[in-house]
Structures are given as structure tokens and as C-alpha cells.
């Protein structure tokens, strides 16, 4: 049996077409069911539903053989015990620094001020500011980072941005991009040895599905008129 860890919401929704291409269709919709373990069209594959931040932990300790996790979450976890064979190129966004639109970030950095930075991503934030030589006091939050600069809890936040609508709605501006983010396939190192053939073939099927998705996007570009 292969156990696949997924989180509900965007990771589940965007992984679905890739799984389908590998012949794996969940037998239930997790948004409608309260079940945490769901079967699939393949009798040897089941899905466990866990919080996004718990996916690497489940896979690391063998609670699942493989899973899908955002690069952001994977970096914060540290990646111990995990093989990362594939960038699935889904759930894309970027990790950025944002401040209130009336906050002069460049001047604060230039002055060498100590910045209060609120984030769920303390490792990434620590590394980013250390590399720039900016002194920061990190404030760990678990959600709604956007609120921190508005309430005076912090000068800046490090958070994920995709359309930018959330920042805009809260009068925040993106001042630096730290990382580009997409979801990765992670596999338990020991499981990959013990169930090598089965896991390898699943990884290859997913790899083909990712390539086909990328190629399907390409003919569109090819039909555009060539640049003069
Ligand atoms: O929400 P919950 O607390 O249950 O867990 P989670 O936030 O860890 O999970 P989920 O499902 O929200 O995110 C899972 C993964 O999706 C993340 O780890 C990222 O790798 C990826 N992802 C891609 C995103 C986004 N895009 C994204 N836009 N995760 C979160 N966001 C949030 C962002 O934090 C911000 O609040 O969406 C808001 C910004 O979106 P825009 O479009 O307004 O810019
Ligand atoms: Mg979320």
C-alpha cells in the first residue's frame, strides 16, 4: 500500500489533475467528507489528509510514504529524511517582504534600524535579513500576517503573495521578493528503498504529467506572432 499525504484546499485541488494523469482518482471529495483517510481508484494507493505544515512531518516519520508540500513549508521543516524528486510546478507564489504603504522600508534599512518582522516563516526570514546584514526582531505568527503592520505589532511581514490582492486590500506593499515558491513531491527515504519499484513508477508517472502540463502551455506561446 502506498500512502500519499495531501493538505486540503489548493494543494489537494492542484495535485488532483496530476494524480488523475497517473491513474489515481480519490474516491471521495475531502471538502464534503470528514474522513481523514480516503481511498482511490487504485487499490494500492490511499490518501491521508493532514495540515499543510504537517505533510513533511508525516512523510519524514513514515506516517505517509510520499506527499505534496509547498517549498515554503519544506524549507521551514528542514527536509530531514525526505527525498525531493520533483518540482510539481503547482500552487505557485512568491515569498516576499511587505510593509505599510506609508513605511519607508529603504530608509529604515539604510539607517540600520532594527526592524520588527512578523512571519510564519522564521527560518527563511532570519536567513534573508542576515544575508542583507539587517538586524531584525522576529515575531512568530501562525496566520493573518497582514494584520501585524496595521496594528503596530511589526514594521514588516514576510508572507506569501500570489495575486497581491490581499496586500492591496490591507494597504501593504511588497518591497522585496525572497523566494519563488511551488509545491514539491517529497518521499520518505526509507520507503523509497523498501518500495522502490512501486514508488519509482509513481514518481515517473507524475513527472510525465508535470511535463505534459508544461508542454500543453507551450503551443499557445508558439502560435503568437514572432517578435519583429
Ligand atoms: O490555510 P491553513 O492555515 O490551513 O494552512 P496553509 O496556509 O499552510 O495551507 P494553504 O492550503 O493555504 O497553502 C498551502 C500552500 O500553498 C502554501 O504552503 C504555499 O506553498 C502555497 N500557496 C500558493 C499559497 C499561496 N499561493 C497563497 N497565496 N499559500 C498561501 N497563500 C496566501 C498568503 O499567505 C496570503 O495570505 O494567500 C494570501 C495572498 O494571496 P494573494 O493572491 O492575495 O496575493
Ligand atoms: Mg492558508
Question: Would you write up a description of this structure?
Answer:
By secondary structure, the chain is an alpha/beta fold. Helices cover 38% and strands 28% of the residues. It has 9 helices and 11 strands. A 6-stranded mixed β-sheet has the order 2-3-1-4-11-5. α1 packs across α9. The longest helix has 28 residues. The model has no long low-confidence stretch (mean pLDDT 96). It binds phosphoribosyl ATP and magnesium ion.
Short description, anyone?
The chain is built from nine helices and eleven strands.
**Major beta-sheet overview:** 6 strands, mixed
Count the strands? 11
**Can you tell me the CATH topology of the largest domain?**
D-Maltodextrin-Binding Protein, domain 2
- Number of continuous helical runs: 9
Oligomer: single chain
Q: Round the mean pLDDT to the nearest integer and report it.
A: 96
Helix content: 25-40%
Trace the largest sheet across and list its strands. Answer: 2-3-1-4-11-5
Terminal-residue CA separation: 55 Å
Q: Runs with pLDDT <50, length 5+?
A: none
What coarse outline follows from CA principal-axis ratios? Answer: globular
The string of secondary-structure elements, in order, is EHEEHEHEEHEHEHEHEEHH
> Can you say what the CATH homologous superfamily of the largest domain is?
Periplasmic binding protein-like II
Radius of gyration: 20 Å
* CATH architectural category of the largest domain: 3-Layer(aba) Sandwich
Structural class comes to alpha/beta
- Give the names of the bound compounds: phosphoribosyl ATP, magnesium ion
Strand content bin: 25-35%
CATH C-level category of the largest domain = Alpha Beta
